[in-house]
Design a protein that fits this description.
- Helices cover 30% and strands 17% of the residues.
- It has helices spanning 11-14, 30-36, 52-68, 109-117, 141-149, 164-170, 179-182, and strands at residues 18-21, 42-45, 72-76, 89-91, 101-106, 122-125, 156-158, 175-177.
- The longest helix is centred in the N-terminal third of the chain and has 17 residues, at 52-68.
- The chain is globular.
């Protein structure tokens, strides 16, 4: 049986350092990408392009693969508030009624403050670098990211255009990616 965050002393103490987020763009390679992540990484199932039984079926398949490699599985979307999905937590701007790990999303100081006030277990701060998810959107860059990330007690996960090289440039321990961890070149 997989270790659940509810079984841990605190989620903040055990929050994974590396996070893979799912998307239509990386769907075809997710099983391989999950197998290539270091044991104990995190996986955020988004797959907003699917609905109903297709989304649930893909979640169940990928959650099984992720857990077989010791990864934490987090669910995004309307179902995140439902205890029917066997996720370790949920991902989104607001806390759900569901118990478990809550990973908030933030793009600025106000959203970080809201995550703090809501007692988020972690916050994805983005976009750090240019990203295919939001082409042409303004980015934080290294300096603004570090300024925001170091002023909160909530563990911050860098997101947006992240790759192994950019994580090294950023010098930040927690980061996540869609393409940067799922592409053939990322493995």
């Amino acid at each position: 049986m997989a270790l659940r965050y509810s079984d841990c002393m605190t989620a903040r103490q055990t929050l994974p350092l590396l996070w893979l987020l799912s998307d239509l763009r990386n769907d075809a390679g997710l099983e391989r990408a999950l197998a290539n992540l270091p044991r104990g990484s995190g996986f955020v199932f988004r797959h907003y392009h699917l609905s109903g039984s297709q989304r649930r079926g893909r979640f169940d398949t990928l959650a099984d693969v992720a857990r077989s490699h010791g990864h934490t599985v987090v669910l995004a979307g309307n179902e995140a508030g439902s205890g029917e999905w066997s996720a370790d937590g949920f991902y989104g701007a607001q806390r759900s009624d569901r118990p478990g790990l809550w990973l908030a999303t933030a793009h600025d100081a106000d959203e970080i403050r809201a995550a703090e006030e809501g007692r988020a277990d972690g916050v994805f701060l983005s976009p750090v670098f240019p990203t295919a998810s939001h082409p042409g959107a303004p980015t934080l860059g290294v300096d603004a990211f570090r300024k925001l990330a170091t002023r909160t007690s909530v563990p911050v996960i860098a997101l947006g255009g992240m790759t192994h090289d950019r994580a090294a440039q950023l010098q930040w321990p927690r980061w996540g990616a869609i393409d940067g961890l799922a592409s053939a070149n990322a493995a």
